[in-house]
Design goal:
With 133 residues, this protein is of the alpha/beta class. The protein has 3 helices and 5 strands.
């Protein structure tokens, strides 16, 4: 039997750069973070299709950026979001779960360099018939 050499399509991701610190060093930190994320992407068959920067904006702007990225995933522009660490995107575990759920519902996943692939894969529940009746 002959093996077919299938070439897998890379996972297209939007990179979200988010660092903490003073305004004078944000660009340097984000560039180092981009290098760190790019190395991970190269080793894990991930294609970077867009880079979104937080700069020094607050959590409200981060949430708006996130909603924009979710919509891009929903429209098929990307397969997910690539970040260095989930704590730079979410304020706590509850916020992280909510964001993972949003991106999963849109058909994508969050890929974290430190944590791996973050997604929920619930099976569809039939709402028409009740069991036992």
């Amino acid at each position: 039997m002959k093996k077919r050499n299938k070439k897998e399509q890379p996972i297209k991701c939007i990179v979200y750069l988010s660092t903490e610190g003073d305004i004078g060093h944000v660009m340097q930190r984000e560039e180092r973070q981009l290098q760190y994320i790019s190395q991970y992407a190269n080793g894990n068959h991930i294609e970077i299709c867009k880079v979104q920067r937080r700069n020094i904006m607050g959590q409200m702007v981060v949430n708006k950026h996130f909603d924009t990225m979710v919509e891009m995933v929903r429209q098929g522009f990307a397969d997910g979001i690539l970040i260095a660490n989930m704590r730079l995107l979410a304020v706590d575990e509850e916020d992280a779960c909510r964001k993972i759920g949003k991106i999963s519902k849109a058909g994508g996943a969050i890929y974290s360099v430190d944590d791996g692939k973050l997604s929920f894969g619930f099976k569809e529940v039939s709402r028409g018939k009740r069991i036992g009746k």
